């Protein structure tokens, strides 16, 4: 029987990164994966395919609408959807191969099959009707999450789709009805709108992107509406009738009231994700779950069963690949006797639309609710030289700093490349930096990042270009 120091169940960004770090620390490691390819949701049906399609569809839209004004004259672009899907698949394959390479390089055994925890130190791996039991000193559960479903609306991944189906549609739908104005709805809604679909988003709450700073979300909604998105906020879809010609979605005000019917060709259900623990045998093994079905862990990622840890989407916290990765590193270090740690106050979030939305730390709403006195510095991209010459001036930077200490508590950006720009704020916040520190840091000219420096100057009411 094979014996290991660590067996990781699941090879998403949490699992494979944990395995690599554990191997670096001298452990003998195996990963268990039930999917045909490594990389989890993120590489196969999540971050990577969505970003490939966001990039390709943005190029398509730019070629159609932005090239001419820069004096680049091309004939109207034609969409070759199979080729675009092939571009997406090449991106997935390249990344999956990268993870396979990392497993080999770090001498990590890949056990293909479904992992089930039999108890402390024992994992059963089953595939094709056969099973083996491996012994291990430690187990990390990194089994990720699955789509949340809506009662009475059956996902067939052809016409009524989750994100997985929406990443592989065979033709551009005339009309898409998106249920949920969260990250998936706005990213994948953007992809299909750019390729020609009419997109309507139905959201239960009275705002889009719950959790993001409200002022940013408001401006984002206005920009998306200008791009052609239609929103029905404060509404819920109570059922979808499927007929041969169209899908008929019944929509009601969230608070109750008269229903209306909206026709669509594709309905995308994206109302969140739920932890995935099927087949792991957690109940029998004695691994406790919390009230929301997530594996319960202590501050050191330990579950209720000795020698069993859990990380990533299957535990509490934001369902983000980089959060899963950092937890993977931290738990490997803890198992190795080191002081692994994740700072949950400084986890950036990015929506990869055009413009992008990014955020780190507290929102204005959170500061208000916590009763923390704060100052605000804002700077619009309309006053940023680089954005002006590129004619990409939508959006602004917003910095929230402690009113007494000037320590930066939150940074929120809407604008082109906001997802790349947020990291200087994250580093600053890791070091407990102030708005004054940012304001006094020399920023290269002309860059969009100068808007961050200007917003920091604006905290002290001394922005130069405004
Ligand atoms: P997962 O990536 O879900 O991996 C879990 C793995 O465990 C899977 O491969 C599964 O097959 C395997 N598994 C499950 N049970 C077993 C078992 N019993 N035995 C063996 N194997 C098992 N996050 C970002 O940060 N940025 C993004 O841009 C982004 N885009 C996204 C776009 C979409 C459309 C979606 C759906 C998600 C996106 N996410 C994004 C979220 C991101 O994908 C997840 O946060 C991340 O994948 C979580 O990593 P994980 O390792 O916890 O789990
Ligand atoms: P989400 O939690 O971001 O958004 C779901 C939205 O659906 C919310 O606005 C919610 O209020 C709404 N909603 C819930 N029930 C509803 C109902 N019955 N009717 C109408 N609206 C309803 O979830 P989403 O978009 O499905 O994404 C899942 C997860 O994947 C996210 O938590 C995110 O962390 C991750 N993800 C991250 C990305 C990124 O980092 N760029 C990209 C895509 C996904």
Automatic annotation (TrEMBL):
PANTHER family: DIHYDROLIPOYL DEHYDROGENASE, MITOCHONDRIAL (PTHR22912:SF151), DISULFIDE OXIDOREDUCTASE (PTHR22912). It is an enzyme of class 1 (oxidoreductase). FAD binds at residues 51, 115, 143-145, 313, 319-322. It comes from the Bacteria. The keyword NAD applies. GO terms for molecular function: dihydrolipoyl dehydrogenase (NADH) activity; flavin adenine dinucleotide binding. The active site is at residue 445. Disulfide bonds join 42-47. The lineage of its organism: Bacteria, Pseudomonadati, Pseudomonadota, Alphaproteobacteria, Hyphomicrobiales. One of its GO terms (cellular component) is cytoplasm. Its cofactor is FAD. NAD(+) binds at residues 180-187, 203, 272. Belongs to the class-I pyridine nucleotide-disulfide oxidoreductase family. This is Dihydrolipoyl dehydrogenase. Pfam families: Pyr_redox_2, Pyr_redox_dim. Its EC number is 1.8.1.4.
């Amino acid at each position: 029987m094979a014996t290991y120091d660590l067996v990781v169940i699941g090879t998403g960004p949490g699992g494979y990164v944990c395995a690599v770090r554990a191997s670096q620390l001298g452990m003998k490691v195996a990963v268990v994966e039930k999917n045909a390819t490594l990389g989890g949701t993120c590489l196969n049906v999540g971050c990577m395919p969505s970003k490939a399609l966001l990039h390709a569809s943005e190029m398509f839209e730019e070629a159609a609408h932005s090239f001419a004004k820069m004096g680049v004259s091309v004939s109207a672009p034609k969409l070759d959807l199979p080729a675009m899907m092939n571009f997406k698949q090449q991106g997935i394959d390249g990344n999956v191969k990268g993870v396979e390479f990392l497993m080999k390089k770090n001498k990590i055994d890949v056990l293909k099959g479904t992992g089930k925890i039999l108890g402390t130190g024992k994992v059963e791996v089953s595939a094709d009707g056969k099973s083996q039991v491996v012994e291990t000193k430690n187990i990390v559960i990194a089994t990720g999450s699955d789509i949340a479903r809506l009662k009475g609306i059956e996902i067939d991944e052809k016409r009524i789709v989750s994100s997985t189906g929406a990443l592989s549609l065979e033709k551009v739908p005339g009309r898409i009805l998106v249920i949920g104005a969260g990250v998936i709805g706005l990213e994948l809604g953007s992809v299909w709108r750019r390729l020609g679909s009419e997109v309507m988003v139905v959201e239960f709450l009275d705002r889009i992107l719950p959790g993001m700073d409200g002022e940013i979300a408001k401006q984002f909604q206005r920009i998306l509406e200008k791009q052609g998105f239609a929103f029905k906020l404060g509404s819920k879809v109570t059922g979808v009738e499927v007929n041969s010609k169209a899908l008929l979605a019944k929509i009601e005000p969230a608070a109750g009231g008269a229903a209306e019917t909206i026709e669509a060709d594709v309905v995308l259900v994206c109302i969140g994700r739920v932890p995935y623990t099927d087949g792991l045998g957690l109940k029998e093994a004695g691994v406790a779950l919390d009230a929301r079905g997530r594996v319960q862990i202590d501050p050191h990622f330990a579950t209720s069963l000795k020698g069993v840890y859990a990380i990533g989407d299957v535990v509490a916290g934001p369902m983000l690949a980089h959060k899963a990765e950092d937890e993977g590193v931290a738990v490997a270090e803890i198992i190795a006797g080191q002081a692994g740690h994740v700072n949950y106050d400084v986890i950036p979030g990015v929506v990869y639309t055009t413009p992008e939305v990014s955020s780190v730390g507290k929102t204005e709403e959170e500061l208000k609710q916590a009763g923390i006195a704060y100052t605000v510095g804002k700077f619009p991209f309309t006053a940023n030289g680089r954005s002006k010459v590129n004619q990409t001036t939508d959006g602004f930077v917003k910095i929230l700093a402690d009113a007494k200490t000037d320590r930066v508590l939150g940074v929120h950006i809407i604008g082109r490349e906001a997802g790349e720009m947020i990291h200087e704020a994250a580093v600053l916040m890791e070091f407990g930096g102030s708005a004054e520190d940012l304001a006094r840091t020399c920023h290269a000219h002309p860059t969009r990042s100068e808007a961050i420096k200007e917003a920091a100057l604006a905290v002290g009411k001394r922005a130069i270009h405004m």
